[in-house]
Amino acid sequence: MARSGMPDTYIGREQAYIKHTILKAYLARLFMIIGQGKEPVINYVDCFAGPWQEEDKALRDTSIGISLEQMASCQQGLRERFGGNVRFRALYIEEDIAAFDKLQAFLARQPNPDIDTTCLHGDYTTLLGDIVAWCGGYFTFFFIDPKGWRKVVSAETMEPLLQLPKSEFLINLMYDFINRFVGVDRHADDMSALFGEVPDLDDGTPEDRQRILLKRYRGELKKYYQGRSACVPIMRPGHDRVLYYLVYLTRHPRGIDVFKTEAQKMEIVQRITQQECRLRKQIEQDGTADMFADDAGLPPQDQMPGDNRLEARACLLPRLSEGPLMIDYDVWADLLEDSDLYPADFQEAMKQLVEEGLVQNLDADVSRRRTKIIRPRRAGRSERWVRNPKSG
């Protein structure tokens, strides 16, 4: 097992490990939160289930195995800790017949009788009515992880699912492929389906292109999904280039905080995994490595992503200059959604602003708070922050 914690079964498909890491971590948090509420049933739907390139017979290296493991774990946890009796259901959809046969055989051996599992063979876009009916009005988490990008993740295609009131989504947007074809005439209709129109990206940096395309795609989703969105990049293994984005949709402001918190942890794992991938390639190419350092070329495990405090400060100060700002769940979600920064970025930036005397909390002494200086609560119960008038 690598220092990042990545099992050997993921070598050569490190991007899948990063994707599965955030899926596993978020499902664990989500199922426990929803299960403590009044929902009697929690649904999980995987629209491109596979299995694909699995190396583990128990499918622990696939979204199938991960989802079943989290449902079983959370079901047990809810019973033991809260006396809950939440029913978990899972629907797995796969078009490829060979993969579907493996999926069907695996589910037939599923050892947990308390989790209802169903599988459907076919293209999920032709089964939307069946999927909606299966959901039954219960809370449903959709994992949409296609191998391609054309006509499968557009807002119009997913409209029946996006309009389900009790739903959350994690969508794989194959950015690297889309970026290659965004200016190609024969893909103009595909781009219009994804972005509402053919984007004009003749000028601007690669970062500008990413920002524009993600903003437009998320905007298209929100035409049908009345909620919030966030996204995190998954890098091509061993390269400083985005392979795809995981786009998350939720209708609850706390969902953004939970997802971005888990995504931040994933970012640290991704940085270490990238370095491990580069080191393996170096060894394969020249057969040499530092024999005296197991961690050669790897960053410290607690190394954080780039310092985004300046950007976080730039988001906070204008809001604080307009008068006292109550940072409740909604305001906190606004900050995370509008900037695509992580919770720790804002926490560190606010801590710095307080230490510099530029900002003060009107409702609490925050001098002893070390990591979470901002503590969002419900409206009316949250703390007010304001820019110090003497700071100019």
Number of strands: 10
CATH architecture of the largest domain: 3-Layer(aba) Sandwich
Using the CA coordinates, give the radius of gyration: 22 Å
The proportion of residues forming helix, as a percent range, comes to 40-55%
What structural class results from the helix and strand content?
alpha/beta
- Count up the helices: 12
Global shape = globular
Identify the CATH homologous superfamily of the largest domain: Vaccinia Virus protein VP39
Which CATH class of the largest domain applies here? Alpha Beta
CATH topology of the largest domain: Rossmann fold
Sketch the major β-sheet: 7 strands, mixed
Quickly count the domains: 2
Distance between the termini: 53 Å
Largest sheet strand order: 3-2-1-4-5-7-6
Strand content: 15-25%
Oligomer: single chain
Mean of all residue-level pLDDT scores: 92
